[in-house]
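> example.struct
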């Protein structure tokens, strides 16, 4: 994340854990059980996820009339979800020899889809960058947070992956930790760098009307990336939906950690539209630009946090998290549903007051005080399945 909006109220949305609802633990015997759940059951350590179960459905009850969510990750998604980012999670001492190298860790999801992460020792934001290839062009989502030698190494990686395809460099939004490589990329041959601001995005992607319309990037061969305006974190935030992989890139508007919102009403409307799009399309994974949460659901690394994350939440979120984001930011609206009106499994109502209290206590124990106006909602850290 990056906070630039001086003078605007900034509201942190914490993706805190819900109780171990029986939908995961008790109600679906035989399915794979999340590692986090197993860990809690084994070591019994107290945490937010130990709040009393909210699901009262007995195990023998008929299944509810909902569209089942495919919780199981496909092989590619599992590769993303389980990648430990060992080379770029930082070090206890970032000044020790070699700690800042490599500047980026590259995960090849498949030969046309790459995820880069900047080394936390070069910048604590440790943002993710996504590169997608088609026969007619390449798309790069964000250009990193900069730092000594960072852009040089980024260019070498981009050259290796993209080659001489025409490259479009777009951004989830224009905060500094997402655009620092732009200056270097602007001098790269056959490369177009989209500028900051809603007007630039509207023009570059052919967005029909900001923020309610959408645009696209066509990489050829049927690989189209839809671009959806989602202002709220920043005034020029957009989400990118890759029709080929089904993955939705949500930037700083949704990732495992606190989300900072500069314009709550815009954010709420954006999340409604984002859910409506998600309900109509086959969204496989929801991938943000940071991981700021530990591997214990609801427990974040302090922000601005240390140089070092010893254990991290998985990068991969799912469509139910977009549903929850919409629900949590539109508390007076009906619970979002699938297009056929069925419920979205795991898309639960916001926390009760008691649960908010427990989360606040946990945050305080973590060294962070909840501030006035912070919105909290349940289940941003649903443990996912192996
Ligand atoms: Zn950021």
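> example.seq
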């Amino acid at each position: 994340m990056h906070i630039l909006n001086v003078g605007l109220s900034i509201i942190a949305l914490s993706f805190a854990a819900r109780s171990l609802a029986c939908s995961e633990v008790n109600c679906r015997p035989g399915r794979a059980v999340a590692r986090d759940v197993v860990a809690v059951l084994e070591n019994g350590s107290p945490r937010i996820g130990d709040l009393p179960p909210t699901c009262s459905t007995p195990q023998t009850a008929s299944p509810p009339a909902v569209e089942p969510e495919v919780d199981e990750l496909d092989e590619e998604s599992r590769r993303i979800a389980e990648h430990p980012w060992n080379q770029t999670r930082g070090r206890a001492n970032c000044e020790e020899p070699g700690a800042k190298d490599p500047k980026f860790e590259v995960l090849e999801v498949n030969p046309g889809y790459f995820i880069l992460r900047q080394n936390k020792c070069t910048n604590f934001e440790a943002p993710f960058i996504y590169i997608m290839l088609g026969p007619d062009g390449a798309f790069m989502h964000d250009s990193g947070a900069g730092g000594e030698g960072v852009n040089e190494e980024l260019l070498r990686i981009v050259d290796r992956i993209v080659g001489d395809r025409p490259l479009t460099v777009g951004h989830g939004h224009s905060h500094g930790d997402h655009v620092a490589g732009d200056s270097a990329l602007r001098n790269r041959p056959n490369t177009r760098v989209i500028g900051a601001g809603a007007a630039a995005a509207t023009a570059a992607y052919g967005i029909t009307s900001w923020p309610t319309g959408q645009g696209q990037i066509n990489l050829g061969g049927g690989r189209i990336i839809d671009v959806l305006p989602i202002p709220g974190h920043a005034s020029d935030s957009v989400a990118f939906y890759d029709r080929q992989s089904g993955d939705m890139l949500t930037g700083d508007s949704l990732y495992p950690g606190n989300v900072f919102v500069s314009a709550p009403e815009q954010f709420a409307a954006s999340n409604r539209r984002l859910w409506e799009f998600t309900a109509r399309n086959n969204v496989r994974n929801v991938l943000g630009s940071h991981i700021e949460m530990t591997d214990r659901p609801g427990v974040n690394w302090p922000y601005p946090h240390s140089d070092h994350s010893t254990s991290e939440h998985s990068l991969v979120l799912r469509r139910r998290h977009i549903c929850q984001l919409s629900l949590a930011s539109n508390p007076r609206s009906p619970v979002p549903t699938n297009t056929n009106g069925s419920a979205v499994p795991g898309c639960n109502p916001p926390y009760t007051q008691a649960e908010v209290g427990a989360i606040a206590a946990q945050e305080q124990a973590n060294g962070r005080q909840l501030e006035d106006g912070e919105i909290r909602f349940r289940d941003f850290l649903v443990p996912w399945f192996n």
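> remarks
Confidence is low (pLDDT under 50) at residues 3-69, 372-386.
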